[in-house]
Design goal:
By secondary structure, the chain is α/β, with parallel strands linked by helices. The protein has two domains: about 270 residues, TIM Barrel (Alpha-Beta Barrel); about 100 residues, no CATH class. It has 19 helices and seven strands. The protein has a seven-stranded mixed β-sheet with strand order 1-2-3-4-5-6-7. Helix 12 links the parallel strand 5 and strand 6. The protein is globular, with a radius of gyration of 22 Å. About 45% of the residues are buried.
């Protein structure tokens, strides 16, 4: 029964997903041992099927995952869309999960136009985020920017498919018929395109090994070894065909993506927080992290996102330490210290938008344990902002925050304290309703603890 309901959590019909989550919650009330005790674990960067999740997880499924893994705090992040926000936050309210919501995109940073930051091989282009959104309903500024982003992405995706159809002949797909239906709201990513082609080859080619060996320009032994692992093979095809150097790669220009200022305006005016994304510290741009942080905090960045399993090579397999591994660990620790110096809370997670990525980081591993408290505080920081913005309109970007908490350090301390004091679900909502947005920060925290 549980498996059936878990599968229904990923149905493209929202009503089916909601009903399944309600039924699973009812089961947990009858069988308390179905869920583990809450642990000192967080995952704030979970992509849903509204962009791409390699497990096929919907926002409701991610709420259930948070319960099944005993997460203290969980967060949804989708690429170029806000479509899953209400479903996720309402699911968190229902199940009493501390939750937050975010969006990821790519921006252009002209000051780093000759340096690569976190988008490999693409100088000036940077993965970037807005965290702490409370609704998918946004103002006209946001709608206009999002519409431009969607138009650019759609044109780019169709161009990729055109190039791949020509190269992968006799295999070809139809973008509207084969790709768009793979996502519930039409927000197509490169990974959806990849899935469509991998499926098409399986259906139409009998000698798949010979076919892929020819198209990837690799010997059969290499391809065969890769095909034994779905995650590795998918990554191989994507790297060889779609990423830099591949037949379908499209070199971005300054006009391809919004500037930091444009994206930040959309994020800030909708109450969310501009957030820099850290890759692994080894690119020429990230080796100048202090310069990058000075620049982007001046443009409005107030938090930092990290993906530990990308920052430290092969963290998921947990092999013996190597010199490269230690080097990346040292870069991660250095960047975490810089985040503290710049008063940037950390926002971490596993993404799950690539095959093989784990569902939860092991914050007790030797590599991550020393950062565990910083990670957990960052999670409660954005949860505190989210709850106070949703219920009282006094989130991080509010006029209230500007008046009472003029510095990043002051806001960080307050929203961490508030986040830790606000219980999730209806109980927390009831406590917040007893407070007034005219109260000062000290009285807000005191009221949350006393209620």
């Amino acid at each position: 029964m549980i498996t059936r309901l878990e599968n229904q959590l990923n149905d493209f019909d929202l009503n089916v997903r909601k009903k399944a989550l309600h039924e699973l919650l009812t089961l947990t009330q009858k069988r308390p041992n179905l869920l583990p005790p809450q642990a000192n674990l967080v995952n704030m960067h979970c992509h849903s099927f509204f962009s791409f999740n390699s497990y096929g997880f919907s926002p409701s499924a991610l709420v259930w995952l948070a319960l099944r893994k005993g997460l203290k705090v969980a967060g949804i992040v989708d690429f170029d869309t806000l479509d899953g926000i209400e479903e996720f936050l309402e699911g968190c309210d229902l199940t009493e999960v501390h939750g937050s919501a975010a969006m990821e995109t790519r921006i252009y940073i002209p000051e780093f136009s000759t340096r690569v930051t976190n988008s490999p091989g693409e100088p000036g282009i940077s993965y970037h985020m807005g965290i702490g959104f409370t609704s998918q309903s946004i103002n006209q500024i946001g709608k206009d920017i999002m519409a431009k982003m969607r138009q650019r992405a759609d044109a780019r995706n169709r161009d990729i498919v055109g190039r791949l159809n020509a190269y992968l002949d006799p295999v070809a797909i139809d973008y509207d018929h084969d790709v768009i239906p793979l996502t519930p709201a039409g927000n197509v990513t490169e990974r959806h395109i990849l899935v469509a082609y991998l499926d098409a080859v399986k259906r139409h080619i009998k000698q798949t090994l010979e076919y892929w060996s020819n198209k990837l320009d690799l010997d059969k032994e290499t391809v065969s070894a890769s095909m034994a692992d779905t995650a590795k093979f998918s990554d191989l095809v994507r790297r060889k065909l779609i990423k830099r150097g591949g037949v379908a790669y499209i070199q971005p220009s300054p006009e391809t993506f919004p500037t930091a200022e444009e994206f930040h305006e959309m994020v800030q005016t909708n109450g969310a927080l501009p957030t820099i994304c850290y890759l692994d510290g080894s690119t020429d741009g990230e080796l100048c992290m202090e310069e990058l942080l000075e620049l982007l905090t001046g443009k409005g960045v107030v938090a930092m996102n990290m993906i530990p399993n990308l920052a430290i090579p092969e963290l998921q397999e947990n092999p013996d330490n190597s010199s490269l591994r230690q080097y990346r660990c040292d870069l991660l620790y250095r960047t975490a210290r810089l985040a503290e110096e710049f008063d940037l809370p950390l926002h971490i997670g596993t993404e799950m938008n690539s095959f093989g990525q784990r569902q939860v980081d092991d914050l007790y591993s030797p590599e991550l344990s020393q950062l565990r408290e910083q990670f957990i505080q960052g999670a409660f920081f954005i949860y505190g902002h989210t709850r106070l913005q949703r219920e009282l309109g006094i989130g991080y970007q509010s006029e209230w925050a500007k008046a009472y908490l003029p510095t990043r350090a002051m806001r960080n301390q307050f929203y961490i304290q508030a986040g830790m004091a606000i219980t999730p679900g209806q109980d927390g909502i009831n406590k917040l309703k007893k407070l007034q947005p005219s109260m000062n920060p000290v009285d807000i925290v005191k009221g949350l603890k006393d209620n």
